[in-house]
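Figure 2 data, in text form.
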Amino acid sequence: MKKFLLMAMLLIVGIASGRAREDVTINGIGYEIENYEAKVVSVDSDIVNLEIPEDIGYFPNVNEEGIIVPVVGIREVACYGHSNLQSVTIGEYVQEIGNLAFAGCSNLVKVENQSPLLSVIGEEAFGDCCKLESFDFGEGISESQISLGMFAFYQCRALQTFSLQFVKDVGAYCFEGCAKLESVPGSENVETFGHRAFVDCTALKEINIMIDGKLNSELFFGCCALENVTLSNAITEIGTYAFEGCKSLNEITLPDQLTGLGSGAFGGCLGLKSVELPATLTDMGFGCFEHCDNLESLTVLSYEPPQIGVYNDDTVDSEYPIDNPECCRVVSEGSDCVLYVPEGCVEAYSNAPGWKWFKTIKEIPTQGIESAAVETESEPMYYDLQGVKIVNPRPGSVVIRRQGSKSEKIIF
């Protein structure tokens, strides 16, 4: 109803498009008005609780009646460095929060959004708001419509939860240094995550990533509390150092269509004990599992040893040749991790760059299945390599299929 009233008032005063910009200040907030839309350009530094209104009334000149215009945006640096600011309420028509709009507001604690039209939170918009505890998107927003710019919430060290339910894109460095960020519900709705988006989010415990294509480099670098990660099967590449230092990560199921794994992708993941690499994997960077000191086994489903070398990432020093023994390793030198490969492939892996440094290379075992019970002679039963029954085998995984008295190892 309010939108229709607003349009009616504009029509009554005979508004035409293309009106020149005008600047006004109302209640300590400076606005620029152009084409009968208002945007916040400045805020008095002594304001503690800022409320961005839905609309404002002003007089274009002394010969015209007053008119009402919607407040549709907050300009860059509008409230930059205001140390007195403690709370912000964003009005109903705001569509964009500009770059650095609230950066460095060191005492800002909470932000409440009332606009269902919000679609952009600019670069470093809330960067270094070190006391920011909550950002409430409010109601009425359509799912996955908001883009978060680079550094948007950089070093917001008090932020504990941030809903990504309405977020379409997360920019590079967006949450870097948010040391108390424990959860990001709705992450499965996000379509893109930028480089280093969650670096040093040392309290983050779990996340669901349902993107297509490449998982960007250093995305979770240093997320030492990260325990649970769900990756979309549509992910085809995992970038350099994507999970470096995630020492609490106990297991990871890699996407079925994964073709590339960047250097150091899981370096320093001390919790990993076993990892299975899908048959689709063809290229790997240096030291993908370096310093994974507790890694006991690595199972590779590809009959052709994936190539080890500089893999599709500018952050890797490309001067190292592929046969350099110091670089061409999958795990750390001296690791006791056992490499399991498909039947008949031990020799190929034993001679392949990177793979030949494993102390022990074996065929994928079939033992552990003999004692498994078979409930019917007609329908096949599936078990993992330790003899545990599987209800829904994952496509591309190596399993034991038993039918009647016959057991055989297959790639499902």
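Caption note: The longest strand covers residues 67-74.
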